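Review form for a predicted model. The reviewer records the input and the model, then writes brief findings.
Reviewer: anonymous (R2)
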Amino acid sequence: MAYDPKRLSVLAYANGFTLWHYLTNDTATAVGTAGYFNTATDMLRSGDMILANVDNAASKGAGVLVVKTNTGSVVDVANLTAFGTVNDA
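Model under review:
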């Protein structure tokens, strides 16, 4: 699958920072790959954060991505930092 702009939405904006939400069936590895968000270069800025729900059709992971760089043609985000841990109880 590929980036779907209909699944990226603004949660909050202040002082040049945007908090986004993104929902996808793609894996955390795919979403964390440089270039995944390239068609959103006009919206994403370095330092923005994306709360992401990934693997939505399978394991339903969630975490945060931080936009590391946006050159105007390539967006690179840090790998997904997952929320929560495995519950072994």
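Findings: The CA atoms of residues 45 and 70 lie 6 Å apart.
Further findings: The chain has one domain: 5-82.
Recommendation: see findings above.
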